[in-house]
């Protein structure tokens, strides 16, 4: 009886083990079928994507602009200082402590005499600090360039290695995992290179900003000394040495004759023959002298109806061009990499042309190679850049 029980137990154990093996085999077959179905579905999807046509590029909507030769006046906004051969009000343009005020009421002064000197130590220290910061940024740029060169070298080496891996992959001498890993590394290096280039551009912009800040402080430094703009007599004194004053504070009155005119200072590379003030045009003449920054002084003749007091600053427009020509609007010109382009619209097509700007003012631009051009397109800079890259356009209206 005991032998029969043992025999039954052995038979049941073998039956259970056989059932488990069958279940495993069925599970494996199911997994294989699922993987096979997924691979076939992926191949079908790739084939469909390969056969699909890329979406058509939609044309950019732009406007055309008709160029006609006409009377053109180009001006630029500027500032002029009211001067007088009769007298002047002396104000300070910066805040600070008065170090010198060597004139007294009733004292006669000549044009060019020192009237006021403001403490300049803070401004000089600020310039030194900005210059040190600028130098530090330059060192950062050099360091970033070294890193960029190293990453470009690494990228070139990796590309060469990747090309060899691709050849080996064809003959099963390399694995697909190795090939894809190298592709990932190449993409990462390209991203790092772009990041480094952006960092360098950011630092370069910072250099420009610091340079502009230095120029502003240097310009303010010039205002620490105030000289007599005209010859005359000190009729009133409103401050004393050692006093801390605010910008724009009146310091002295100088009286004399009542002849008033406007004076402007222009860079040596900019010329003008007229200025426009309150809708009126006035001729200006060069005074044949320059200051330390290389700017030239110009003055108008006496203006009887000028109500502003000597020393006041007025907004004016300098006339930089007057004549017959074709005037380009600013939204017809693309500025790219120091070159300027217009897009000529003719016979239903648009073609870019590099232009040479002769004059530019508030009203627009004059170029010297547009005599044969009748129409151009106008758009925002980002749209013009896309047109330059070859994106098709659609002209919807004509503007003048």
Number of strands: 22
Strand content: 25-35%
Number of structural units classed as domains: 4
Helix/strand order, N-terminal first: HEEEEEEHHEEEEEEEEEEEEEEEHE
Shape: elongated
Spans where pLDDT lies below 50 across 5 or more residues: none
Number of helices: 4
Strand order of the largest sheet: 2-11-14-13-12-15
Protein name: Biotin/lipoyl-binding protein
Pfam families: BSH_RND
Organism: Flexistipes sinusarabici
InterPro entries: MdtA-like_BSH (IPR058625)
What would you say this structure looks like, in words?
InterPro entries: MdtA-like_BSH (IPR058625). This is Biotin/lipoyl-binding protein. This protein is of the alpha+beta class. Helix content is about 40%, strand content about 35%. It has 4 domains: about 50 residues; about 90 residues, conserved putative lor/sdh protein from methanococcus maripaludis s2 fold (Beta Barrel); about 130 residues, no CATH class; about 100 residues. The chain contains 4 helices and 22 strands. The strands form 6 sheets. A 6-stranded antiparallel beta barrel has the order 2-11-14-13-12-15. The chain has a 4-stranded antiparallel sheet with strand order 3-10-8-5, with no helix packed on it. The chain has a 4-stranded antiparallel sheet with strand order 7-6-4-9, with no helix packed on it. It is elongated. The model has no long low-confidence stretch (mean pLDDT about 85).
